[in-house]
Protein 1
Amino acid sequence: MPVIARFYGIIVKMYFSQSEHGTPHFHAIYGEFNAVFSIESLEMMEGDLSGRAQLLVKEWAGIYQKELLKMWTRQEFKQLPGLE
């Protein structure tokens, strides 16, 4: 699963497999904690990230939501900047 972005210790990844199915989403990893976020709603669909980490991921995803959806649709990897 390629790394899309890194910021504040959070790693964002997305599968690029033709067998991928379901709601457009990405994965966020922070230490031993993992979560899956919807690209469309930016809500955490499953996982155990802390509230603070969730807020950072949602802020980042809001900035790059169009790019994330384009990557999901085209199945093309592109590395995105993190939060500053």
Protein 2
Amino acid sequence: MESICKLKDLYKALYNFEKKFSEVNGLTINEGMVLCCLKDGKSKSANELCDFVGLSNSRVSRIINTVENKGYIMREMGIADKRQMIFTLTDSGLQKVKEMQAKEIDFSGFAASLTQLMNKE
């Protein structure tokens, strides 16, 4: 039972970190990861984004739609396979990536929570 309580504390620490990240950047961590995957300027397929983010196809599909609605990415049909969608950063998305890279992400609170959690008996 104790491991469930520790897991709850871990989720709470991650939730608090993501909440602060979202307030600072105007994006969730998952949305930020999609932009991070595309920051090299190369187009990526939905499967490549899924592999990078590490979530299910359906979850990443919803994240892609949100980031697309915010105007940070655009989709195009694949050339070889018309069923495949290819995603690229828009100018607005590239600007958002630059803004995020210029900000220092403060992991200290999250790290302190993890340290405290690991030291709990």
